[in-house]
Amino acid sequence: MFTFIHTADLHLDSPLQKLEQYEGAPVEALRGATRRALENLVALALERSVDFVLIAGDLFDRDWKDYNTGLFFAAQMAKLREADIPVFLIGGNHDAASRITKILNFPDNVRRFPADRPDTIALDDFGAAIHGQGYATPAITHDLSLAYPAPLPGYFNIGMLHTAATGREGHDTYAPCTVEGLVAKGYDYWALGHIHTREILHERPFIVFPGNIQGRHIRECDPKGCMVVSVDEQGDATLEFQPLDVMRWARLKVDMADAADGFEAAEAVCEALEAGLETQDGLPVAARVELTGPCRAHDILSGDPERWISQIRAAATDAGAGRIWVEKVLLQTEPLAQKRKDATPDGPVGEILSFFDTIQEDPELRASLGSGLEELRRKLPPELRQSSDALCPEDDDWLVKTLARVRPLLLHRLLYRGDRR
Amino acid sequence: MKILHLDLIAFGPFTDLSLDLSGGNEGLHLIYGPNEAGKSSTLRALSQMLYGIPVRSPDDFIHPYTRMRIGGTLRRPDGAGLSFIRRKGRANTLREPDDTTVLEETELLTCLGGVDEDLFATMFGIDHGRLVRGGEEIIRGGGDVGRVLFAAGSGIADLRQVQADLQAEAEDLFKPSGQKPRINEGIAGFKRIKKAITEAELPGREWGRHDEALRTALLQKADVEAELEQKQAELNRLERITGALPLIARRKDLLDAHSEVADAVLLTEEFSKRRAKAFEELQVARNLVNQAQGNLADIQKNREALDVPERLLDQADRIEAFHQELGSHRKARNDRPRLEGLLSGARAEARDILIGLGGDRSPDGEDLRLEKTAVIRVRELGGAYEGLVARRETAEEAIETRSRQVKVLSERLGETPDPPDTTELEAALERIRSPGDLEDRLRTETEEIQKTERELHRAIEKLPLWSGGAAELAALTVPPAETIDAFETRMGEAEESLKRLQAEREELYRKQAEVKEQLHRIRLSGDVPAEVDLQAARERRDEGWKLVRTAWEIGDYPESAAREFIDGPPPAMDLADAYETSVRTADSVADRLRREADRVAHQAALVAEREKLVNRHRDAVKRLETTRSRSAEIEAEWVDVWKPAGITPRSPREMRSWAGRQEVLASRITALTERKKGADALRMEVQKRTADIGDALEPVSESGSGKDDTLTDLSRRAKSTLERLNRLRNKRDQLRADMATRETELAEAKSRADKADKALADWRHRWAEALIPLGLTPEASPSQAEAVIDDIKRFFEKRKEAAILEKRISSIDQEVQRFADETADFAGREAPELADLPFDRRVPELHARLTRARETDTRRQGLEKQAIQEEKRLNDARRRLSEIEARLEAMCQEAECGTYEALPEAEERSARRARIEADLERLNENLRELSAGVPLGEFIETASASDPDTLPPRMDRLTEEIETLHTRKSALDQTIGGERAELAQMDGSARAAELAEESQSILARLEGEVDRYVQLRLASAVLSQAIERYRKKNQGPILSRATALFAHMTLGAFAGLRLEFDEHGEGFLVGVRPGGREIVRVAGMSEGTADQLYLAVRLASLEAYLAKNEPMPFVVDDILIKFDDDRAAATLQVLAELSGRTQVIFFTHHRHLMDLARKELDEERLFIHMLTESSGARR
Q1: Please, what's the b/e burial string for B50-59 (b: 16 or more CB within 10 A of its CB; e: otherwise)?
Q2: CA separation for the pair B203, A68 (Å, rounded)
Q3: Higher model confidence: residue B1070 or residue A321?
């Protein structure tokens, strides 16, 4: 009978986070990812000739001020207008805070629901009724759905709502609501937004988070895209997920059990990356590689992490044919059980080892070591001070973890001589 | 822990090499391996046995990875042994000695006391490089005591460098006040990019502002454009009216002018052209008529003036005939006197000739006429006379010449003798073609034969074993080469076996001597018992026993036998003694045989050897004899073979060469004999030829034969004789032939003379007869006769000539008369006034008059022709004139004119009317344009109604207003363009977004660098504190021990070490000279001394460690190579002392260190192992 696209959380021009450029990184492949995801959305709508498009909030990041982003969005919507595809929007928490959303001149095929009250748009051509309400302020803490109108009889009723539902980790709990409450509304489809992870909360009626359209950091792995919803004569909806993203994020744990040295470790990582690439629809991948498990290579890797991370990145560049960006390499290997020392030997090296033991037990000693880093911390930009685990000298847990990594580094530097391996 | 065995089962260059390191309490094990012996592999094996073989091993060049094995046996801390095999692999690389059962790594770990591979290599290993670096680092660090202790204690020679690296790398990343370090730079870069983002951002309100401005401007522009349009229209209208006013005025003028010519017939321009052309043609035609009429009148007048004499013209032919005839008459009349002259000349000549001939001739001379035949006869005879006379003279001359020649020839023939016969001589010479060759050949052959004979003679003299002559030698019978070869082989074989046997004999003799010498030596070192000795001793004992038993059983014994027994050897007192001695001797011999079995066996072997040698020697001598006699037999046979030749032969080899020479000589002798025979034959031939020639020469030569001449001389002489005689004979023959020819010629000449005489006589007779008609005597010569004949002929010719001339003169006279009469008659009729003139003037006058009459007639004919032409032209002109007048008449009708003279005026009026009408039309057109669609009349009315004086000010005002509006419009256009451009730039650019992505990249990099910095800083801090802690704990005891070691190793150059403090209270080490007063800072120490300082602290630290911990082997790799021998010895002593507490394994490439250790160290402590082939350590 009719088909529509349900999407949300475009967060247009939100950058891919913390991707360090390095020699061989596929910079071009990843540039402007959110824009190209939106282009994919438009292309999909045109290709499928959908009847309308729903965007359930969060077009732009709240702090993003570049009106160009809005213009780009408007231009994309204009393409849909040319194909007579209407777009229905509700404002999300980011939009409420965004200056762009406020002043943007949307093409006339884009209809926005009001923020002060729920509204209903009846599409008589298809027999569909869309109910929705946007955010008046960034933080809506009450259940907006309660005030939504009753379903229009004889219509396929769709509710658009930007909500955290019952709450999801990493997302502010805005416009909370319950599945039961939504089901009780009697609508046929709830087009939700806000939560970036795709999730179907309920079927018949469908309550759907389509997730965002492009992952922007390592916590947004998995394919990202939209829901293509087909409604038949009986009013039964069929859902189809369509990926729109242009690159993927992936975490890769690689067991180093067989690696006897750094080169074998790099090789193992490459193999894992190649295997991992195959599941990513041919898209470029920003991968976080975690090297785990007890292995002979542990001492070598942790003794000179910088070198081996570069080595792994270089190997990944060769293996990935321009598709792999090694976002980060986490060295989390352990020494082989049989090499663990039962006793700390005497002598200067023993002194270092026992000093490390002392440090592990003495928070004050740790704090005093950490105080030497305060100077750097003060100079760091707020983006790093706030949200990084690179430097938190006042955090004792961080100090414990960091000093544990210092130990092999120091021993390696003192004892390792290249001529033995 | 102690390493008891290191088994290099399959590792590096080694296969199954076992090093036994168990010696000593702990032991200083010096492992000596020269270059290439595998010292480095052994060093690696030591560590890899304990800790595993690395993934990538260089020691697989003989044994592949899968086969690499290192075996080891350790002494565990509890004293028990642990044997195992280490293989290469990823897991379970430790096995029981059976190389199958897996051994848990923990078994081994208990032996290692927490010392891992790195620590083992660093703390329990030292090589030359690290020693030197340790020394250098002490100097660089200024002797900082904490570092010295820590570095030497741990074996980390480059501790200071590690610290410096940590510091430097951290500072590369971050400095609190820096710009350049990467983190500082990253932070700055991040700030910059944030700023760039802000700049690249397009604020939304700015877009709104531009959008609003654009809209407003567009609206305003529309208003301005409307107003502009309206004003412009009014202005245009006024401008049109202004433009129309002068036109309207002019229009009125034109309309007035038009009314004057409104009735004018409108003529075309072509009409005017036509009319003008007609006028022109009219004028031309009139002129033509006038001219033709004038011409006609002139012609008529001229014709009338002409008078033509018609009669004269009618007689023109006669007058012409007269005129022509006149010429010939005048000529004939002029010739006549000359002809009369000729006539009288001819007559006179004829008369003269007649007189010349003489005689009485008739004046007409008719009797002189001669017959033709008579003249011919005279001329023939006259012609023949000369020939006859000449023939007679020629014949007489020939007779005279030949007679003289015959006479001379017969005289010369009489002088020439007849030569003798030479046939015999020629035949003799013919037989030898080249006598010189023959003699030369004979001479050469003879010489060569002599030379060859001499050479042969010498060669024969030189031939050994031969004293006979050449012929005998040639005939000599010599044994054939095969026989000689056979003898040589046989004799050579015999010789060879002789030599071999002699050598064998000598060798055997030498061996015998050797055996003898050995036997002698054995015996020198004491009597060697032999089996025979034992036999003898036992026999003697048994003999004694028999006596004793006899005595014992019977109570008595045979005295003599007993006596003999008792006496000999060795003599005894009585039987008992003797028996006892014999028993002891036998036992002693048996004992010795047993005890000295080796010697006995040796001796026995030597004795056996000697016997064998003696036998072989004997045998060899026998075989030598046999061979010698055989050899002699062969030689005898050899001599026999040569007996027939009468020669005592030398060795076959020599004789083979001799026989060869003999054979050559024999063949040369034979060849020489042959040549001699040939030479003899040649000589005979020469003698025979010489005799032949001599005999033939004898009779013909004045000088005789000369018997002693050689063949060559003789034959040369014979040849010259022969040639001379032949020349003589030829000459005589020639003379005779000449003589015969001349005599014949003389006879012929005489006959010719006779014939000529006869012919001449005949001629004279006939000549006399022929001269009669001429009236001459016979004596007259032919020339005279000829002259008479000519004169007669000329006379008749002249006569004929005179007759012809007479006739011509009379005919001229008649002709002239006839002409004169005829012309006079004509003139009498036609022109009487001329009749009296002589005919030669009358005829020309008539002719002149005729010519003039003809000219007049010609002129008259010309005039008549002209008159006809002029008539024709006149008619043409008149026709043309009437035609033109008709045309003009028609044009007059067209232009409504009475006469054609009025035509030009009609044309002028027509033109004026047309001009005015055209102007009016143009004017109306202009006005219509200005009226902009309003009907013309209406427009003119409106325009005429407006006030021309108010128009300009109204227009000026409008123009100003329009200009203002334009300015406003263009300002608005600019605004619109600007705003549009602004908005176009706001195209949804991703620049800010890209910068944001870049900022994320910087953040990510910063994060990594911060992490790195943190680790480096923490590592650096921990290390510094650890060093300090270690120093505090260990400074005292280690320094005091190090002092002692340092003093020892520097051989007392330093008394020890001392701790000094700088102004910050930091302790540093200095060296103390003996006496304690002088201190030497490390910076002032030589490199070697610094090395020893490092080593002293190193060993002191190790000792301190050993005091509290399970010992670990201390592996020393060639650290002494730069020490002098004394300090090296001192250091070795220190190491030896250390080996009392832990195993010291000392590797070296240098033999002198091994020797030095042997010399200096206690045997109990030093154990030397060699990795060389010769040592046998390597299997």
Answers
A1: bbbbbbebeb
A2: 8
A3: B1070
The whole-number pLDDT of residue B1177 equals 41
How far, in Å, CA of A183 to CA of A195, rounded? 19
Q: Which of B207, B989, B1003 sits opposite A18 (nearest CB)?
A: B1003
B56 to chain A: closest CA residue? A421
A326 interfacial to chain B (CB closer than 8 Å): no
Cβ-based contacts of B989 with chain A (< 8 Å): 68
Listed in sequence order, the residues at least 6 apart from A354 whose beta carbon sits closer than 8 Å to its beta carbon are A344
Average pLDDT of every residue of chain B: 85
The pLDDT score that the predictor gives to residue B433 is: 65
Helix, coil or strand: residue B771: coil
pLDDT at A142: 92
Chain B interface includes A349 (CB < 8 A): yes
What b/e sequence results for A190-226 when a residue is b if at least 16 CB atoms lie within 10 Å of its CB, and e otherwise?
Answer: bbbbbbbbbeebeeebbbbbbbbbbbbbbebbebbbb
Report which of A98, A125, A123, A99 is spatially closest to residue A111, judged by C-alpha positions.
A123
Q: How far apart are CA B28 and CA B42, in angstroms?
A: 16
Q: Do A65 and B1008 count as a contact with CB atoms less than 8 A apart?
A: no
- Gap between the Cα atoms of B445 and B676, Å rounded: 8
Which of B988, B999, B1019 lies at the smallest CB-CB distance from A406? B1019
Higher pLDDT among residues A254 and B314, named by residue: A254
Most A CBs within 10 A among B999, B1018, B1027, hence the mutation to make, goes to B1018
Helix (H, G, I), strand (E, B) or coil at B318: helix
Distance from the B1135 Cα atom to the nearest Cα atom in chain A, whole angstroms: 20
User: Facing residues of A9 across strands?
Assistant: none
Q: Which residue of B lies nearest to A404 if distances are taken between CA atoms?
A: B1015
CB contact under 8 A, B1007 and A347: no
Question: Is B999 within 8 Å of A15 when comparing Cβ atoms?
Answer: yes
ipTM over 0.85: yes
Residue B434: predicted pLDDT: 66
pTM summary value = 0.55
Whether A2 and A203 have beta carbons less than 8 Å apart is answered as: no
With an 8 Å Cβ cutoff, is B90 touching chain A? Answer: yes
Q: Is B1101 part of the contact surface with chain A (CB cutoff 8 Å)? A: yes
Q: How far is A295 from chain B (nearest CA, A)?
A: 10
Confidence class of residue A341 from pLDDT cuts 50, 70 and 90?
Answer: low
| pLDDT at site B353 | 80
Strand partners, A208: A191, A200
Q: How many CA atoms are closer than 13 Å to the CA of B446, on its beta-carbon side?
A: 10
Q: pLDDT confidence of A77, banded at 50, 70, 90?
A: very high
Give the closest-approach CA distance of B191 to chain A in angstroms.
8
Q: Which of B113, B211, B1021 sits opposite A343 (nearest CB)?
A: B113
Cα separation, B1135 vs B1145, in Å, equals 10
Of A102-106, A178-182, B364-368, minimum mean pLDDT range: B364-368
Residues with pLDDT less than 70, chain B: 358-365, 433-436, 526, 702-708, 1172-1179
| A257 in contact with B, Cβ within 8 Å | no
- For the stretch A25-34, pLDDT in tens is 888 888 899 9
